[in-house]
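Interim report to the steering committee. The following record documents the input for Probable GTP-binding protein EngB (195 residues).
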Amino acid sequence: MEIKKAELVAVTADPKQYPPDELYEIAFAGRSNVGKSSLLNLLTNRKKLARVSQSPGKTRTINFYEINDSFRIVDLPGYGYAKVSKSVSESWGKMMERYFETRQGLLKVIQLVDIRHEPSKQDVQMYDYLKHYGLDGIVVATKADKISRNQYQKSEKVIRQTLGMKPEDKVIPISSLKKTGHEKLLEEIEKILID
Ligand code: GTP
Ligand code: MG
C-alpha cells in the first residue's frame, strides 16, 4: 500500500469531537517518547504531519489522521511519563477506555516498544489491555537504528516473551530515523483492512 494522502482531521480528548465512526481505524499505542508521531510521519512520508516532541508527553489528545480518504490512523496519547500527576494519568485511562470501548471502526491497535529495552510494566499492562479487547497482535520495535541488525532477533525474543505474544503475532523493527521497516508495517495494515 502507498499512502498518497494524509490529513489530520481531529485532535481531541472529548468523544463528542471524535470524527464520525464510519471509517476503519488503526491506532498506535506506546509510552511517551517511544516514537509514535515519528512513525506516523514516516508512514505518510510527511516530515511534519505529527508533532515530534523534544520533551516527552506532548501528545495528550487522541489525534485522528485520515489516510487516502479511506481509513484512519489514530495517534493515542503516550503513557508512562513520570512527571504527570495522578489526575492526569487517571484522565488518560478514562480517555483510552472510552475510545477502545466505543469505537466500532477500530480494527487493531499497534503497540510500539523501544527495541533497546525489555518492555516496561506499563507496556505489559497496555498489551494485556489490548488482548482483552482483541486488538493485539502487532508490535513495532522502534528506534531500530540504535542497535545492530544481529541484535534484532534477541530483542524480538525478549519483546515476545515479556509481552506474552502468540507465535503468529508480529514484531516489526522500524527506524524512523533511517527510514527502514515501514514497508512491512504498511503490508500488515493493508492485510488488516482487507480482512
Ligand atoms: P509522545 O507524543 O510524547 O507520546 O511521543 P511519541 O511517541 O510521539 O515520540 P516522538 O515521535 O515524538 O519521538 C520522541 C523522540 O524519539 C524524538 O526525539 C524523536 O526524534 C526520537 N525518535 C523517534 N523515532 C526514532 C527512531 O527511529 N530512531 C531514533 N534514533 N530516534 C527516534
Ligand atoms: Mg507523539
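The chain has a mean pLDDT of 92. The committee is asked to note this result when reviewing the revised timeline.
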